[in-house]
Design goal:
single chain, about 350 residues, alpha/beta, Rossmann fold, 11 helices, 10 strands, globular
Length: about 350
């Protein structure tokens, strides 16, 4: 028993000190980027909790090393050095090391944009639990509302003068969407699960421009519809980019998480309803049957602009001759280069 306790203590210390040993994986020499890592792996996994009350760990890359920071420091630096913020939320069965490594694909795309940015890696407790597939997936699905609450708390503390882009992969996409829905509810824009909010809008600061990039999204296909669970997120975001892969084996079995006939995954069939701000990118042929993040990251490189020019988001006035045609085909997917 004593040996087991010692091994557990060593494992916890190693997990908390991992960013210092893995700084090279995040390429901290990024000249344009301000790189952060926030870990909620020691926080409560289920229930409603506040981020400030939980044992979360925050690091910032400075001088080629991961240095421990506080949430107040993130808020202060964001106010003194405002820049566009990108938050990467990984998927299921990721270690702290793989979360940092996978964020490198996002960092490299941001570096190529040629503009300053702030990248926050959101590391949540997604390590595999047990040997069976379905119980593990159901457990991580149960974790996502709590993680969305933590992320929503963080979003409220960020500087609202700059655009915020959330990049969610697999279950990370669900965390991203629900956090924006909660954030919109806190701002008085809407309730997190559809319908108007009872909270007065003057109580909180207005929402900044929000973009969502949902890669292999493991949430229900109807969640972003006007009557969906997270319709508030669809109303609050200025643009939502959704990848669709009809060959993804993991997403094909997504309905079994609920039982025999659960809803299809958003990343498998695309959105069920919505408006023009939902942009669907077809990756079936480019990615194939795999659910691996690195394969999706390589495929979205030519298809999705992670950091587009802000003027590219400005909506154009519809052409009267094509308005009816666009309305009849609201979600015509764009194909990625093979």
């Amino acid at each position: 028993m004593f040996i087991r306790s010692r091994l557990l203590a060593i494992a916890v210390v190693a997990a908390l000190s991992a960013p210092a040993a893995q700084a090279s994986a995040a390429r901290p020499d990024a000249p344009l980027g301000d790189i952060w890592l926030l870990s909620t792996r020691q926080a409560a996994c289920c229930g409603e909790h506040r981020l400030a009350e939980q044992p979360v760990h925050l690091w910032q890359v400075e001088g080629g090393q991961w240095n421990s920071q506080s949430l107040d420091a993130l808020r202060t630096i964001g106010r003194d050095d405002p820049r566009r913020t990108f938050i990467f939320i990984h998927g299921n069965r990721e270690s702290l090391q793989s979360a940092i490594t996978h964020a490198e694909a996002v960092r490299s795309k941001l570096e190529r944009s040629g503009r300053k940015y702030r990248l926050l890696i959101w590391a949540w407790p997604s390590d595999r639990v047990g040997r069976r597939q379905r119980p593990d997936v159901q457990l991580k699905h149960a974790y996502t509302p709590t993680q969305a609450g933590y992320l929503s708390d963080l979003l409220r503390q960020l500087d609202h003068r700059q655009e915020v882009c959330l990049i969610g992969y697999s279950f990370g996409a669900r965390i991203a969407v629900e956090s924006v829905a909660r954030w919109a509810a806190a701002a008085g824009a809407a309730s997190p699960i559809g319908g108007p909010s009872d909270a007065p809008a003057a109580q909180t600061a207005p929402l900044p421009p929000i973009r969502l990039i949902l890669v292999a999204a493991a949430l229900d296909a109807g969640d972003l519809s006007p009557q969906g669970r997270f319709a508030a997120a669809a109303r609050a975001a200025v643009q939502i980019t959704i990848t669709r892969n009809r060959f993804d084996t993991a997403l094909r079995f997504y309905p079994r998480m609920y039982g025999r006939r659960g809803p299809q995954a958003l990343g498998f069939v695309g959105p069920c309803g919505g408006d023009a701000k939902l942009r669907v990118v077809e990756l079936s042929c480019a990615v194939g049957k795999t659910h691996a993040w690195l394969c999706y990251a390589a495929a979205i490189d030519p298809a999705i602009y992670i950091a587009p020019d802000p003027q590219e988001r400005a909506p154009q006035k519809p052409d009267p001759q094509t308005a009816g045609r666009e309305k009849s085909e609201p979600h015509k997917p764009e194909r990625a280069a093979n």
